[in-house]
Each structure stands twice: as C-alpha cells, then as structure tokens.
Design brief:
The protein is an alpha/beta fold and 257 residues long. 36% of the residues lie in helices and 21% in strands.
Length: 257
C-alpha cells in the first residue's frame, strides 16, 4: 500500500482558490489506488469542515476521517484533569476540546490548560488572559508554531505569531502538537499508516521534517505555498513546482516497484 500524507494550505489551495492542477492531481491519486490522508496545521476548522472545504474548492469528495488537524492532535494530549480549558483560537479547537468531553472557560483562575492556535479575532485581552492562566499553572499547549499562513492574498500571520506573544508574556514555552511533533505523528499513525509513505507539503520545518526518522517515509516539497524558489528546502527527497508534479513523482515511483 502506498500512502500520501498531503498538506492543505499552500498545496491544494490558497484561501478558497484551488492551486492550478491540484484538483486533477487529487483525482489521479484516487484513481491509482493510493491512500490519501490530509494533515494540516491549520487549527481553524474541524475535520468535517475541512473536508467540506476540500470538496468545495477541488470538487473531490473527502471523508472527514481522512483529515487530521493540529487542533485534533492537540486534543489527544488533553486528559480529564486538564479542564476547564481556555481556547485562544477558532471553531476547530473548540470542537476538538468538546470532543474530549472537557468544559471551557475564559477565566484565567479557572483554566487548567490553555490551547492556542490561529485566531483571526485575537485581542490584547486574549493574550493577557492566556498568559495569566499559564503563570497560574495551566498547561500551555500550541496547536502549531507556524509563523506564517498562506492565503489567496499573500502571507498572513500564523499561529506561531500568537503563540510567541503569549509565551513572551507568560515566560514559558508551549507543548507543540502539530506537524512535525509527536501528537500529530501519532494521530497519523492511528489511521493505519505503514510501509511506503510520501509526505507532500510546502514547509520544510513541518511537512518535510515530519518524514524525517520514519522508516519508509519520503517527502516532497512543493513551491506553491510558504517556500519559494531558492529558499531552504530542508531534507526533502524531492523539490517540485506543485502538487501535480509531486503526484508524478509518487506514481512514477509506484510504477517502478
């Protein structure tokens, strides 16, 4: 079995605009029998909402079970004693926390954990409340520390910018759960991923790093997102223009086996 672990933002689309050739590339993977999972550090959507967006933008139907988010990875490390939880983020984190049966709070003196992700309505008070809770002993959990986020209108601040602000005030560093860290890796492996695995993404420090150290895993960096031509590509096994070219690599290798 050949598996592809595919990123979303900057690989399939930017905002709600499909990147050229990405719908056809997904269709080719599906027709070839390659098993595709989508792993994203974007914490703003639930797996169901992300699957709906993939279908709306690319026309390819996706099972929400095959979409793994940094919000879901963060929720996996929360235990019964971590509630109430303060969420500095959007609906993806809220739904993931609720899915663990935990209550939420906005009060620093009540929070036992603070989960931080991309939050486009972030306020000064949000940063202050989160830092107060962490200094009071709450766990500090970051969905990811990506500094930037690719959109249809260029690069915007990512979760890492928000996490860094809270860390600076709280005087503590977070537990990080998204790619390439162990909570996301464990979530991916929970889907039965073994054997011949390709990781496709646009960030060397997250997507490409995810494949490092994993037997049978190889990586392909695409240049349609965060990484631009001429910039560092980490330990990527292949660097290609876009998802269509990445699928050429995967299917070409499969035919040779």
């Amino acid at each position: 079995m050949t598996w592809v672990i595919c990123d979303l933002d900057g690989v399939l689309y930017r905002g709600r605009v499909a990147l050229p050739g990405s719908p056809e590339a997904l269709q080719r993977l599906g027709a070839s029998g390659v098993r595709v999972l989508f792993a994203t550090n974007n914490s703003t959507r639930s797996p169901s909402d992300a699957a709906e967006k993939i279908e709306a933008v690319t026309g390819v139907e996706v099972d929400p079970y095959d979409v793994l988010t940094s919000a879901e990875a963060s929720a996996t490390i929360l235990g019964p004693g971590d509630g109430p939880v303060m969420v500095i983020g959007e609906s993806g984190i809220v739904q993931a926390v609720k899915g663990r049966g935990l209550t939420m709070t906005t009060e620093p003196d009540e929070a036992r954990a603070v989960v931080v992700g991309l939050y486009r309505d972030l306020s000064y008070d949000d940063i202050a409340r989160a830092a107060d809770a962490i200094r009071a002993g709450a766990r500090f959990i970051a969905t990811n520390t990506d500094g930037t986020f690719p959109t249809a209108n260029g690069m915007k601040p990512g979760s890492g910018a928000i996490v860094a602000a809270i860390a600076a005030v709280a005087g503590q560093e977070p537990e990080i759960c998204g790619k390439p860290h162990s909570p996301m890796l464990a979530l991916i492996k929970s889907r039965g991923v073994t054997g011949d695995v390709w990781v496709i993404g646009d960030r060397a420090d997250t997507d490409i790093a995810l494949a490092e150290g994993e037997s049978g895993w190889r990586s392909i960096l695409v240049l349609t997102g965060v990484t631009r031509p001429g910039e560092p590509t980490g330990d990527a096994d292949h660097v290609v223009a876009d998802l269509a070219a990445a699928v050429d690599v995967v299917l070409g290798d499969r035919q040779q086996r």
